[in-house]
Every structure is written in C-alpha cells, then in structure tokens.
Amino acid sequence: MDGTLPGTTLEDPRHEQQGNSHRPGRMWVRVDEAGWCLRRDQRIFPDRSAFSSHFSPTQVDVQTVTVGKVYIVPTPIGNLDDMTFRAVRVLQEVDRILAEDTRHTHIVCARYAIATPMTSFNDHNAAHRLPGLLQALRQGARMALVTDAGTPGISDPGLPLIRAVVAEGIDLEVLPGASAVVTALSGSGFLLDRFVFEGFLPRKGKVRAERLAEIVAEERTVVLFESPLRLVATLVALQQAGCGHRPAVVARELTKLFETWHRGRVSELAEQFQTHPPRGEMVLVLKGREAETGLPTVSDALLGQILAEGRGMRAATQQMAQMTGLPRSRLYKMALDKKNKQKEEDGSESCGLDADDPGVEPP
C-alpha cells in the first residue's frame, strides 16, 4: 500500500468538469485493506503505482478521513415521481441506507436502480443499532437516513440518530424534499405566515383534552396527522371543544392517484365523514382562531340573552362556544360571573339556571 493508511482518500480535480455538485471539483477514492477503490466505477487498484498510472500525480491530492457523514433524505409521500435527482444520487453514493422499513424502501430503490445496502432503523431497534452505526461513522462511513414517506424526523423514526450525530460533531447534510405537512398547508388556502404542527394527537385521557384546548385557543393555522380510524372522533372532539364553526381542510392521499381535498367547517366535515367513513392517509388543517377584538363584549351580551331564554349554563356555554370559537371553560366563567352579578342585583337565583346545575365547575 506504499505507506498509505486505510481511511485515506485520493481525489481527482477533473471531477469538477463533470458537473457533480455533490463533491465539487473532486472524485473520492476510499483506501481499505484490499486496495484503492474508485467509487465512481468501483475499479480496484492493488497498489499506489497502479493508481498513479490511472491518475497523474498532479491531478491527485491526499486527505485523511476522520469521520463519516449522515444524509437526511426525504422520499416521496405517495407519488414515486417526486423523488429528486439529488436524493437518487446520494442514495446511490452512500455506503449504507438506514431505512424505517427496508421492504418499503426497496420499492423506491428498485424504481431508481439504487443498489446500496440497506439496514432497518426504526423505533423498535434504534437503541440496539445506534452504537454500531456511530462506530462506523467515526471510521468514515457515509449513511443516508430515510423513512417510508416524507422527511425523516417529522413524526417518523430517526430522531435518536440525528441527535447522536449532532452531539458527536459528525457531519450532517439535510436534503429538501417531500413533506405532507407543507403540501397540505400549501393547498389549504389559510394564512401561512404563522402555523403550528401538532403531529398525531394523544389518543385519550387528560393529555388529549389539554391538547385540544390548546388547539381551540390557537390563533395560528394548525396542521395535524390523523388515522382514518380516528379522524371522525378527532373532528367531533374539536367540535365539542368549541371549533365546530372553524373552517378546516382534510387532505386525503396526498400526491397519490385518489388524492382528494375536503373543505368545510369542522362540524360539516365531522358529519360528512360519519356518513362516508374515510380511507387512506389524512392530514387535517384547521384555520386559526380569529382575533378576539371586541369579541368578549359581544359574547357577554349573547350569553346573557341565551341565559335569559331559560337555557342552562352548560347548554348556553356549549352553544356560545360553537358560535364564537371561545373555550367553553372561559364562557362558563363568564356565565358564572353573570349569575353572581345578577344575584347581587336582585337577590334571586334566576338567570336561567338548571335546577341540577352546580354552577361551580366548568364543563
């Protein structure tokens, strides 16, 4: 090996003329125990003199590789034609692809003639695989992280590796590409100068209720992922929380053959999908709550009118929540304050309260 250590690279400046922006101006050659391996055409050079006969000394400069690199590579969210040229090239050039599910990634690789070895990396095996992957990266390996669809790390596996790579100072390169979040937002028609991504909502319990309350009060556009089996339940829960009047969009099967966009108020969409159960992958985009300028005063007057009609506090606050989008807890407090004020004024307990209404806890 003429004194050259494994892990050394030789580079060809003529590569710049070939227009390869991945490594401008150079073609990388990996040195290993077997000999010189030219990555472009995989030719093996048994010793340095054989390599020099292929590249003149003036065309080569030598560097030592100390660490490898990780590429975050988005893949199509449905339509395989959405794969980028750069993503294909990176997947072809790296030493290994880390895939959420190798069976799914094989479909993409077969389409674009990518023969790079694959290893599964997901929530189930991340703790077991991570130490070995980091060791390989320290020795100069280059790896691409992909998920079944979209950009790794966004409601998908991959975050443990990304965090570890950042912590160790290993090079990290992120490719732009397909994202269900951005696609759904772009087609929603809602204001997008500010938005918030909530991922998948908790399925039940206090945490779910708290998250729903935050969404109801959110003034920014909200985007959610949801299973078709839970979409109706989520829409109904948003309606009950006070978002029934709020405009929303359900983007179904984005970029696929049967892509559809369903638009309407949350209450209308809930009714629609109760009648026609949804199928496929769903993204829910909810318009943010309108600014409340003057709204509390109007709400107070309407609440007083509804209570005067004989409606109970709970029924009145639920109706007002659907009309105004304000949280029921806030409206209930307004109703309770109004009741106490009325008591002070006329000493009665009228104001349209139900006989069984405790009047002390919000619904």
How is this structure best described in words?
The chain is of the alpha/beta class and 363 residues long. It has 4 domains: 8-64, no CATH class; 69-177, Cobalt-precorrin-4 Transmethylase, domain 1; 181-286, Tetrapyrrole methylase, C-terminal domain (Methyltransferase, Cobalt-precorrin-4 Transmethylase, Domain 2, 2-Layer Sandwich); 295-346. It has helices at 48-54, 85-93, 102-111, 126-138, 159-168, 180-188, 205-217, 231-243, 266-275, 295-308, 313-324, 328-346; strands at residues 8-11, 28-32, 35-38, 44-45, 61-64, 69-72, 96-99, 118-120, 142-146, 171-174, 195-200, 221-226, 247-252, 260-265, 282-286. The strands form 3 sheets. A 5-stranded antiparallel β-sheet has the order 4-3-2-1-5. A 5-stranded parallel β-sheet has the order 8-7-9-6-10, with helices on both faces. The chain has a 5-stranded mixed β-sheet with strand order 11-12-15-13-14, sandwiched between helices. The longest helix has 19 residues, at 328-346. The N and C termini lie far apart (78 Å). The model is unreliable at 1-47 and 57-65 (pLDDT under 50).
